[in-house]
Design a protein that fits this description.
- The protein has 392 residues and is of the alpha/beta class.
- It folds into two domains: 49-71 and 298-390, Aspartate Aminotransferase, domain 1 (Alpha-Beta Complex); 87-295, Aspartate Aminotransferase, domain 2 (3-Layer(aba) Sandwich).
- It is built from 15 helices and 14 strands.
- A seven-stranded mixed beta sheet has the order 4-10-9-8-7-5-6, with helices on both faces. A three-stranded antiparallel beta sheet has the order 11-14-13, with helices on one face. A two-stranded antiparallel sheet has the order 1-2.
- Strand 5 (136-141), helix 7 (146-153) and strand 6 form a beta-alpha-beta unit.
- Helix 5 runs parallel beside helix 12.
- The longest helix has 24 residues, at 297-320.
- The chain starts with 11 loop residues before the first helix and ends in a 6-residue tail after the last helix.
């Protein structure tokens, strides 16, 4: 941490040095601005599923990307197949049917809903729209990396409060908020630690933050939680005009490949976000699949049940290996090894098991294991048992 108590992003200083050394000039101007030049290139942490299945067939354990092991609902699959027949048509630029369905689902007004090309696009639009020159973005680290990436890409300062015991430290987060702060991002539950901010703590935090600040609750995993005190964020919207709740169809709904997300917020914010979006930002197939998925809440309930059971199974299995996984309110379990996480991940990959090492988050010997189907959870635990000599 630096003198202000802000967590340093591990690769930031090295990236700035590389960017300065590699800067390309043409006609007296630089190829890219310093904000983009200083950013490390985005590289995938593991091979894509097509590579894995080609290598290992159906035996591949794809447990690194926090995907729903049950996949999309039959209703969503049928709607997608129908939508494919109309691919020569442009999608509805308003995503009106989906917007109305989301509004009805959460019992909010239609003009409070924004549909995006995944929640990531909405995160980027929030920064581009509302954070001006000299204004800052505040979040935590390690947390969802997109907050700092889009902030830096926009040339804005991003202040990050360190987690405490794997959780958002809301006191530390509030201490970074000042007159320059425009956006605060809270991933709840948090990726990559799977922990959450309870309702009472969130309310106390919101009461401390000036109402001029836009607080964004990124709830990508909210439908999969079972904590009794997980925040009812939609009930807080009328109490704080500049509160934004983000959700996605990638996790509980099993539609990660379609890239559809949405935000619910004060209607005053919506027209400004619409000014900076692409006209056809959400595909017709994405809109159709998400709309059908939203109506199939039975599939969401089944996904939640299977995933919660999987969390408990993985947690118990890791404890049986003398490890201490963090309590999870997501569809993954995070666990630190005594040493050699890289060697474990490589050895698992040779056997067809793919999980995530969290070195990019500054958690050098920590693993993130996505919940699979029951047999997959058992297989990955058996593989880890066979490899326990690598971290002892």
């Amino acid at each position: 941490m630096n003198s202000k108590g802000i967590a340093n992003v591990p690769e930031a200083e090295a990236a700035r040095a590389v960017a300065e050394a590699a800067r390309t000039e043409w006609g007296g101007t630089t190829l890219v601005g310093p904000e983009v030049a200083a950013m490390p290139p985005l590289t995938p942490q593991s091979p894509y599923w097509a590579d894995l299945t080609a290598r290992h067939g159906d035996a591949a354990l794809l447990m690194s990307a926090n995907e729903n092991p049950l996949g999309p609902s039959p209703a969503a699959q049928a709607a997608i197949q129908t939508a494919v027949t109309e691919l020569h048509r442009f999608p509805d630029p308003r995503a009106l049917s989906l917007k109305q369905a989301v509004a009805a689902h959460h019992q909010v007004s239609e003009d409070a809903v924004v549909i995006g090309h995944g929640a990531n696009e909405l995160i980027e639009r929030l920064v581009r729209t509302f954070v001006g020159q000299g204004e800052t973005v505040v979040s935590a680290w390690p947390s969802y990396a997109v907050y700092r990436l889009v902030g830096h890409a926009a040339g804005r300062e991003v202040l990050l409060a360190p987690l405490r015991d794997g959780r958002y430290d809301l006191v530390g987060l509030a201490a970074l908020v000042d007159l320059r702060t425009k956006l605060v991002f809270i991933a709840n539950p948090n990726n990559p630690t799977a922990t959450y901010v309870p309702h009472r703590a969130l309310v106390a935090f919101l009461e401390r933050i000036p109402r001029s600040v836009i607080v964004v609750l990124d709830e990508a995993y909210a439908e999969l939680t079972d904590a009794a005190d997980f925040p009812d964020s939609f009930s807080l919207l009328p109490l704080r005009p500049r509160l934004v709740v983000l959700r996605t169809f990638s996790k509980a709904y099993g539609l990660a490949g379609l890239r559809v997300g949405y935000g619910v917020m004060d209607p005053e914010l919506v027209p400004y976000l619409d000014r900076v979006r692409q006209a056809h930002n959400v595909s017709s197939v994405g809109q159709a699949g998400a709309l059908a998925a939203l109506t199939d809440q039975a599939h969401v309930a089944t996904s939640r049940r299977v995933i919660r059971q999987g969390v408990h199974a993985l947690t118990a299995g890791l404890k049986a290996l003398s490890l201490s996984p963090l309590p999870s309110q997501t569809n993954f379990v995070t666990v630190a090894l005594p040493k050699n996480a890289d060697g474990v991940v490589r050895a698992l990959a040779e056997r067809g098991g793919y999980i995530r090492r969290l070195a990019g988050y500054g958690l050098e010997d920590t693993l993130r294991i996505t919940v699979g189907r029951p047999a997959e959870n058992q297989r990955i635990l058996e593989m880890l048992d066979d490899l326990r000599h690598l971290w002892r």
